[in-house]
Design goal:
The chain is mostly helical. It is built from 15 helices and no strands.
């Protein structure tokens, strides 16, 4: 069973990144830059005139300051390239030494990326950010992981979290769940196992102690259906049963008002994976009464159906 969890060596991070810059400051505007970084010495003069905006170009590239609303028909790729080039010029090329990129820049780039290649380009800037002794926001790992899942490139997240010494992005439980979900659906079992092995590297609770992660890993093992993976799955069943016994079904019920939120998505993942686990246990001719009872009590059976 242990052999299945073997993964390439990964350097253990020396500790989570300290939130030393503007992580808890007043950043509601989500501006990419510090407040005083848009004005040069001439602009600070009382005689300075605001720059004229070319209306013809405003529909192609939105205003440089993301705090300024963009036209509805703006070119999303152009917006991505504009912000990407600026961030790169500040932390990689260092052609903009007088301007400091705010941590929210990463979140803007994640949301603007529409292709895995764009997200990979962004990730390749992480080492320069680390070299500059800048830290990421606590929410950045999760936002990066979720965008990787949405763009169907969980391997990129696995690469980044698997090499902390290079990228400096800490794996969190909230980041691990969407990547684990994406990997377990369409990728080799070994990649799911590799991610699970990173839990100990980042000093996260074991996969077997988290209801969502445990059910995802169980489903992946049953789906692989090798002798070794089925042995791992069977070994995980008691911990899943214990987790369900310690979790009030009502606390995991689906609510209309939560639809679309990350926690709601995770509950829906759990609902479907528990159904798959129940079917797999039935094929193994194992007792499923405890699982069926919890699924009915939580409303998951009504959501996914009973078979």
């Amino acid at each position: 069973m242990c052999a299945l969890f073997t993964c390439p060596p990964s350097k253990k991070p020396s500790g989570t990144a300290a939130d030393s810059d503007d992580l808890f400051g007043d950043d509601d505007s989500d501006s990419l830059f510090s407040d005083d970084l848009f004005a040069d010495s001439e602009q600070k003069s009382s005689n300075a005139q605001p720059a004229k905006v070319d209306a013809a170009k405003s529909t192609d590239i939105p205003p440089h300051n993301p705090s300024v609303p963009a036209p509805r028909d703006y070119d999303r790729d152009a917006r991505f390239e504009e912000i990407y080039r600026f961030v790169k010029s500040c932390i990689a090329d260092k052609t903009e030494p007088a301007r400091q990129v705010r941590t929210s820049a990463w979140h803007h780039l994640f949301s603007l990326a529409t292709r895995p290649e764009q997200l990979e380009r962004v990730a390749e800037l992480f080492p320069k950010w680390r070299d500059a002794r800048r830290s990421f926001r606590p929410a950045t790992p999760e936002k990066f992981a979720r965008r990787c899942a949405e763009l169907h490139c969980p391997q990129l997240a696995l690469k980044v979290f698997g090499d902390h010494s290079k990228y400096g992005l800490d794996l969190t439980l909230d980041a691990a769940r969407p990547v684990l979900h994406s990997l377990h659906l369409h990728h080799p079992l070994q990649e799911t196992i590799t991610l699970a092995a990173l839990f100990s590297v980042y000093k996260l609770p074991p996969v077997s102690s988290d209801l969502v992660c445990s059910s995802l890993l169980l489903t992946a093992c049953f789906k692989h259906a090798s002798e070794e993976s089925l042995a791992v799955a069977r070994a995980f069943v008691p911990s899943l049963q214990q987790l369900l016994e310690n979790t009030q079904p009502a606390s995991m019920a689906l609510r209309d008002e939560d639809h679309g939120k990350p926690a709601d998505k995770e509950k829906r993942w759990l609902a479907w994976t528990l159904k798959k686990v129940e079917k797999a246990l039935q094929r193994q001719e194992l007792d499923v009464s405890w699982l069926r009872q919890w699924r009915v009590a939580s409303g998951y059976a009504a959501y996914t159906g009973l078979e």
